[in-house]
Each structure stands twice: as structure tokens, then as C-alpha cells.
């Protein structure tokens, strides 16, 4: 097996490993976000129920009014929670989008640096070969295997 094939196989294996790691990380983050969301929902609803219960005790309503108020409170809690959830999801989506943009910018920057390096090596290949033939040979090998 030649160096080019071995490098190609190593590169493919590394890509598979990176993809698997990325998938596992995304699944872990998704699970964490779901747990966090459920925890936030429970805490929020518990606090709101306690507040509304206290309000009811202070007003000392009769049984029927109390039941009706509790239903209203539950509806209001659910409505408030839905509003809060929409805001939370929007913020989370914005954070994900920002991370994706940053990753894409880093990838583009890396490609530009690589292409500039290759351009400079081509442009100054004669000088490099003249003053440092060993480095020139290494770069020729490296350049020819990456293409």
C-alpha cells in the first residue's frame, strides 16, 4: 500500500471517527437540553402553583370558586410556560446558529490558509529547492498526496 492510499484511508477513518464523535456529542447535548427544559418546566410550574395557592388561601374562597380559579390558574400557568418556552427555544436556536457560523468561518479560514500556503510553496518552489532541497521534497510529497 503506498503512502497516498494509506493517508487516504487514515483520513477517511479519521472523518468517520469525527462524525461519530460529533453525532454522540449532539445526542448528549440534545438529551441535556431536554432534561434542562423538563427541570425548568417543573420548577416554573411548581413556583406558580405555590403562588396561586397562597393567593387562594388569602382570599378564602368557597369550594366552587376555588376550583374554577385553580383551573384558570393552570391555564394561565400553561400559557406563561409556552411563552417562556418559545423565548428559550429561540435563544437556543440562535446560539446553535452562531456556533455553526463560527465553525464555518473557522473552516473557511483554514481553507484559505491552506491554499495560500500551497500558492506560496508553488511560487517559491525554486528557492526552496535551491536552499533547502529536503524540505522541498517533503512539501512536494505532501502536496501531491493531498490533491
List its salient traits.
147 residues, mainly alpha, 4 helices, 95% helix, rod-shaped
Outline the structure in words:
- By secondary structure, the chain is mainly α.
- 95% of the residues lie in helices and 0% in strands.
- It has 4 helices and no strands.
- It has helices spanning 3-59, 63-123, 125-131, 133-146.
- Helix 1 (3-59) runs antiparallel to helix 2 (63-123).
- The longest helix has 61 residues, at 63-123.
- The protein is rod-shaped.
Quick recap:
This protein has helices at 3-59, 63-123, 125-131, 133-146.
SSE map:
Elements: H1 3-59, H2 63-123, H3 125-131, H4 133-146
Helix pairs in contact: 1-2, 3-4
| Total number of strands | 0
- Approximate shape: rod-shaped
Could you list the spans in which at least 5 consecutive residues all have pLDDT below 50? none
What is the end-to-end distance?
18 Å
Largest sheet: none
**Cα Rg:** 30 Å
| Mean pLDDT over the full residue set | 86
Order of helices and strands: HHHH
Percentage of residues in DSSP E strands: under 5%
Which class best fits the helix and strand makeup? mainly alpha
Give the helix tally.
4
Report helical residue fraction. Answer: over 70%
